[in-house]
Amino acid sequence: MINKSTIIALLNDGVNQFNELISSLNQAAFETNYSNKWSAGQDLVHLIKVLKIVNIGFTLPKPLLQLMYGVNKNEARSFELLQTLYKNALEGGAKSPSIYIPKPVLFESKNQLIQKHQLLNEAFIDKMNRHSDHTLDRYRLPHPILGKVTLRELASFTSFHTTHHLELLRSKLAHINS
User: What are the φ/ψ torsions at residue 149 (nearest 5 degrees)?
Assistant: First the structure.
């Protein structure tokens, strides 16, 4: 089981690396869709949309979480297992739900979006820190691909998800620049 301080470090590292890469992009690199994939700006907006929803989930009252999603009675899944389950689902054709799919993003909004991404990540970490280890492992939220996950699993996934999009973006930019 991954501890809270490790998750926080991974969240900060992923968001910082992603935002640094986005910051370095010119207009063409920020707005270009390569091979029917999202642009860098759309990847950024997607991550913002995800963080907004996760932030809301982490503020729901515990009795409501229990009523809506039950409590976890299973052993916590490892960070590696969550990654594998997610990657396998994507390879099997799983797609992002429509609420997370970004519209085209203009270069002019780049700096504002980077700041928003950073602030949402900081807010998420703050919300996560308000939960005890017991709470993180007991209460669950729904994930569109992984099903019901504990709060800790969702926080772990969120850090992995950012890194996943960072790797995808690096790959897209390598193709655009070659």
Answer: -130, 150
- Global pTM reads 0.94
Alpha-carbon dihedral angle through residues 85, 87, 90, 95, given to the nearest 10 degrees: 80
Residues in contact with 9: Cβ distance below 8 Å, sequence separation at least 6, in sequence order: none
The pLDDT tens digits of the residues spanning 131-158 come to 999 999 999 999 999 999 999 999 999 9
CATH architecture of 4-177: Up-down Bundle (1.20)
Q: DSSP letters along the chain, please?
A: ---HHHHHHHHHHHHHHHHHHHHT--HHHHH---TTPPPHHHHHHHHHHHHHHHHHHTTS-HHHHHHHH-B--SPPPPHHHHHHHHHHHHHTT----GGGPPPP--GGGHHHHHHHHHHHHHHHHHHHHTS-HHHHHHBEEEETTTEEEEHHHHHHHHHHHHHHHHHHHHHHHHHHH-
Cβ proximity of 160 and 86 under 8 Å:
yes
Q: Are 57 and 67 in contact (CB under 8 A)?
A: no
Amino acid 34: pLDDT? 81
Tokens linked to 178: 């070659």
- Model confidence pLDDT, tens digit, residues 16-31: 999 999 999 999 999 9
Task: Give the domain ranges of the chain.
Answer: 4-177
